[in-house]
Amino acid sequence: MFNDDQKTLALNFAQQLAQRNYKVAYAMCSQNLQSQLTLDDLHEQFEDMIPLDWGRIEPIELDKNGDYPFVYVVLGGDVYSEAIFINSFVIENSSLNIESFEFGRP
Question: Is pLDDT at 16 greater than 90 in this prediction?
Answer without folding.
Answer: yes
